[in-house]
Each structure stands twice: as structure tokens, then as C-alpha cells.
Amino acid sequence: MAWDLVVAKDDLRRTEFRDVEPPPLEDGQVRLAIESFALTANNITYAVFGEMMKYWDFFPGPDGFGRVPVWGHAHVEASAHPDIAVGQRFYGYWPMSTHLTVRAKPSKSGFTDIAPHRQHLAAVYNQYQAVGDDDGLEAHKALLQPLFITAFLIDDQFEESGFHGARSVILSSASSKTAIALAALLKKRGGVAVVGLTSPRNQAFVEGLGFYDQVVPYDDLASAPIAAPAAFVDFAGDAAVLGAVHNRFADELKASILVGGTHWEAPRGGGTLPGPTPAFFFAPDRMAKRRQDWAPGEFEQRYGAAWAGFVADAPRWLRVERGQGREAIQAAYLAQVDGGTAADAGVVLRP
């Protein structure tokens, strides 16, 4: 039986499984069976910003409910497209479901879903990459690749701006996977101190990564000896943390970049803050800019080189926790909503 896991848009803890009957395929359509997907804080961010950033629009749900997007792998179960064969495997953006039907337009590396309801959305999410058999790193790729590309683009923006003149780059939610990826890239680039803000329970893990020059518990932010001027990248989405950084550095804060919402239930906003106006970072816009700036294929070459080294190192610090079936998926989702997943764990689920 095919099913969707749907989430109430006004209460992210209210979930339901809805049995569905996949419709017959029209010419050009392909039905994929979802094999596995990663579940991280990033997926909760998709739900939190589902209306504002249109994440709910990718996989429409019944009235009042949404289907949370996830990244993972699937294979073609049925095809009405002459160039896409049953059994082919693809990596990409899926709902928390057993199946997805797409209107496929083949590309050099896979296909693009050209279904009408997805055409107003960021193109990068509509692209699916052909893959072979599991190379042993497939779970780590699903967990980290969508987060790493955001980190890669932020790192690139910092390099282009000369770090905005900062001596330190401060990352909140330093144990989150996107922050870890950015810290690794900044550490490798050099020229600036990489400072991680984290909770006491995650401090030892963050220090052990080797990517941060300095790890500061949130409560010590006001007094910690952090070099100024500084730039801030906010992965927490917590107004108290944002306010504390702005009040600590004021005019010595040269950039304030909002990325995620790992502290998604914390108050947002916070009124007028000293220093720069916080600016939301939207990775697809930066990617589109660099594809225009650089020669054809250069983006893929630069990104691929950075990604290969990072994912090869990932098993050192990230262990994979696996689950299968409705109950396991629902439990893992609710644990992620409540921030209950250990920092050194990555959850990969099979429908």
C-alpha cells in the first residue's frame, strides 16, 4: 500500500498517515518508489518556513496539511517516458512517502521534474541525479549533501567579500550539520577564526570535530574572548542568541546572516538590533549567481572537489542510525521536531 506522511501546518507535532492509490501514468510521467531518505534539522526548517519559502508547494498535501520534503534515493517503479527505464535509481528531493510521480525531462545527469505545480519554485529542488549502486557512503551523502551545498555557497560568499573585514566568523548551533560543513570549509580556507556557539551538552562533540578554533557555550557568549570585528552566521533562528551576538559586537559586527532554524520554537525577530540588519541567505539564489559568474562546468568542478573531501571524512564523526516503516519514521520525525537527535547521529529511514 502506498502512503504519505502528512503534517499539520499549524502544529508540526500532529502527523497522520494517509493511504493513497497512485494514479495511472500519463505520457512523460514516471513513478518512483522511495527507497530511503535522511531526516535532519534541515527538514524541520523546511516545515517551519513552509509557507514563507514555499516548501509546502513541492508536494501538495490535503487541506491544512503539508508533506515535509526530504533528501534521499528512489528507483523507477513504472515509466511512461521512453528515456527513463524501470529500475533506474535517482538521488533528489522527495516527500516523506512511499512514492512520487513526476513529469520527467531527461538531462545529462538525470532528469528535471517539470510538473506545472513546481515551475514557480527554485529549480535546484526539481533536479534529480542518476546514481548507481550504493558505494558505502550513500547514507552520508543523503544526510550531508543538501546541507553541504548551502555551506559551500556561504563560504564562497565570505571569500568573495573578504569575510566582510571580520577576524572571526561565529556560527550558532555549531553542532548542526550545516554549521559543521561551513566550519570545515572556513577552517580549510584559513584567514579567519572559526567560533562555534553550542549548548553545554554538545560542547565536547563540537570541540572534537577539529573544525572550530574556539567553542563557546551560549551562556558564555557575553564574556568569551572572541576577536573583533566579527561576522555571524545564525543556524539557530533564536532571537535571544541573535540579540546577544548583536549586543556583544554592535558596530564591530560586520555581517549577520540568517540560515536556519534549529531552535525553531524560540522567539524570532527581536526588534531593532545594533549593528548590521540580519540578512536571510537563500542558497538557490547564490547558486544561480555563481552559475552565471563562472564558466560552464566550473561550479560543478569546484563544488565536487570540496564535497568529495568532506564526505570522505564524515564517517569519522557522523554515525548513521537507521529505521524502517511507518512507526519508525513517525518516531524519528517527532524526535527531530523536539531536538532529540544526538549531534553525532544521522537518521536514515526506509518507508
Protein architecture, described:
The protein is of the alpha/beta class. Helices cover 29% and strands 30% of the residues. The chain has eight helices and 17 strands. The chain has helices at residues 41-48, 138-161, 177-189, 203-209, 239-249, 283-293, 298-313, 326-337, and strands at residues 2-8, 11-20, 29-39, 65-66, 69-79, 89-95, 99-106, 110-113, 127-131, 168-171, 193-198, 214-217, 230-234, 253-258, 279-280, 319-324, 345-350. It has a six-stranded antiparallel beta barrel. The protein has a six-stranded parallel β-sheet with strand order 12-11-10-13-14-15, sandwiched between helices. The protein has a three-stranded antiparallel β-sheet with strand order 2-1-4, covered by helices on one side. Strand 13 (230-234), helix 5 (239-249) and strand 14 (253-258) form a beta-alpha-beta unit. Helix 2 (138-161) packs across helix 3 (177-189) and helix 2 (138-161) crosses helix 7. It is globular, with a radius of gyration of 20 Å. The mean pLDDT is 93.
For the termini, the CA-CA separation is 11 Å
Global mean pLDDT:
93
Oligomer: single chain
Q: How many helices?
A: 8
Shape: globular
Percentage of residues in DSSP E strands: 25-35%
For the biggest β-sheet, the strand order reads 3-5-6-9-8-7
Low-confidence stretches are: none
* Total beta-strand segments: 17
Largest sheet: 6 strands, antiparallel, barrel
**Percent range of helical residues:** 25-40%
Using only C-alpha atoms, the radius of gyration works out to 20 Å
Query: Secondary-structure element order, as H and E?
Result: EEEHEEEEEEHEHEHEEHEEHHEHE
Structural class: alpha/beta
